[in-house]
Amino acid sequence: MSVHLVGGGGDPAHDAEVFGSFLSEVTKRAAQSGRDEPLVAIVTVGPGTAHAEELAESLGGSVQTRRSTLAPGDIAALTAISAVDGILIGGGVTPDYLAALLPIFGEIRRQISAGVPYLGFSAGAMIAAERALIGGWRIGGVEVTPEHVSEGLDEITLAQGIGLLDVTVDVHAAQSGSLSRLIAATEAGLIDGGLAIDEDTVLVVGEGALGVLGAGSVWRVSQADGGVLVSTIGA
Questions:
Q1: What is the pTM of this model?
Q2: What range does the domain containing 91 cover?
Q3: Residue 208 has pLDDT above 80, yes or no
């Protein structure tokens, strides 16, 4: 089973491409577990239930969902993700997601290792990495990305993430200007490089080559002699 990382967005016109590979794996997992209808855990952190409802709609009517809608400062319970065929972590303020899910990172890793597919949407994609970029818009006081993508943090901030992949991830790449944050963090030596995912685009990390589906691209940033190398993995 795979890790599916979505760069945000939420245009229903792209739901089939963005969520299709995850749904396929969820259905396969359910069959292996003897369930006629797949069960997906949806965890969101933020005010209201609208985002969880939108994610459930994006999955379609072929799955059941167990939704855990947490307020900032709440802590996720193990029961939120237990005995399911897929785990979907939503978007919002990335540091809030990190704080809410930190106590169950180990259980998420255990379940993915056991074959449960994971889908991270925006913040859920950013915290999936071993070394997670959780926000910030300046390095040494110098602006490197628009302030509106700062997640409420000043300096670019990295933290221990879930650890589902060994490369740092950023999201809303082409749409928000966050690609420059990943480039600057790499150039400054804060990270070795990373992947920035466009909106309505999914990066599928599993066995073999990386897969990209949806409307946009995944931007690969790496260190190079005398600077930084940027390339794209197209859908």
A1: 0.96
A2: 3-234
A3: no
